[in-house]
Task: structure prediction
Amino acid sequence: MNTQDKPWTGRFTAPTDAFVEAFTASVSFDQRLYQYDIMGSIAHAQMLAHVGILTTDECQQIVNGLQTIQQEIEQGCFVWSIALEDVHMNIETRLTQLIGPIGKKLHTGRSRNDQVATDIRLYLRSEIDLIQAELTRFIKALLDVAAQEKATIMPGFTHLQNAQPVTFGHHLLAWCEMLLRDKARFHDCRQRVNSLPLGAAALAGTSYPIDRHYTANLLQFDTIASNSLDAVSDRDFAIEFTSCAAILMLHLSRFSEELVLWSSSQFGFIELSDAFCTGSSIMPQKKNPDVPELVRGKTGRVYGHLFSLLTLMKSQPLAYNKDNQEDKEPLFDTVDTLKGCLRVYADMIPAIQVRRENMIAAAQRGFTTATDLADYLVRKGVAFRDAHEIVGKTVRYCIEHECDLANLDLVVFQQFSPLIDNDIYPLLTLEGSVAARNHIGGTAPIQVDAAIQRLQALLS
Ligand code: ARG
Result:
């Protein structure tokens, strides 16, 4: 490619060094923005026609040319050129090849600086909508399992030690709560993404009588960026999106950890469907939880992308700097990673098998209803600290005698406190323990049911 083929060569006498050309090009990765670039260019041309800078005929030729280019790209016959640097110059150059000198008028009143900022925002807005849809599908899948398992008892853990019995439905709803907060964060983030930079031009605005509201309206932006310097250099929205993504991945990673534990033979709480597991090349008996392990592993790259973007921005003076070209790969990979993880979980969750008998057997170990005994004594007038001490001693007796709290003889109970009576036994069952936690946010099946209804209504 000769120097003259680049749109900016007027003030240059020597061609670009071949390695520098490749080093500075972004077309290998930013070509994924093509449909947003074309959408933004069409709206810009229509705005230019609206204010009389282009004639209706010129605008129509530009729009037709851009639509042809979109087809060429989608049919795989568009030739991308590294010498033309990025998606913007590739498309603009092709436009002039296709429609002649009128194509050169498209860039009136804009710059690649406001163009690229617009493209990324259009891209991210659309990806946020897809992510929200997958996130909703995943939460709904969890709600369905929670509804089936609203009365299934499992041990609840603190410090990964058996703590108190909970219902599996309640446990799953904890994940739904986190994911709903993620949804709310993406919703808020979208509002800040949905602001139009176009019109800022290179940095200072433009001397043409442009109508930014007209463009914003065509592209369905809610607001227009109100300072041109900020408009071309702001990448907060990308950082904000990636931080929402990092928090979501944190949640997915913790959930993955539980799936890995639960599907181990030590826990045996669930079985993942064969379609979502792989085997070992040497150990014939193995069925490995690769999907949750990979989701857990992929969390690291999203954290890395967040840090890349924060670092990318931290030393940039106003306004646009070429550093910003480095925003795309972290952003694209964050989007791809998130969509992949959400899709695989939304597909996998309905197919998990719950091993209720193993969950309940596990809950029976570790004196998980000891707190219920203490609460019973408090209701009989004992101070909680004294009740704690009495129950601690009773548990020690059970450990020494290898027996269970729920089956101790009344006479033995009464050695620890004469206040204990026959009415203690139903309270020490797992069912009695969970049913007693009957308030908003508690683990009782009746509350799980009500919570599921609330969450389903939120998502409908
Ligand atoms: N490829 C560039 C980017 O991604 C487009 C903007 C280039 N602007 C410039 N003045 N060199 O940021």
Summary: The mean pLDDT is 96.
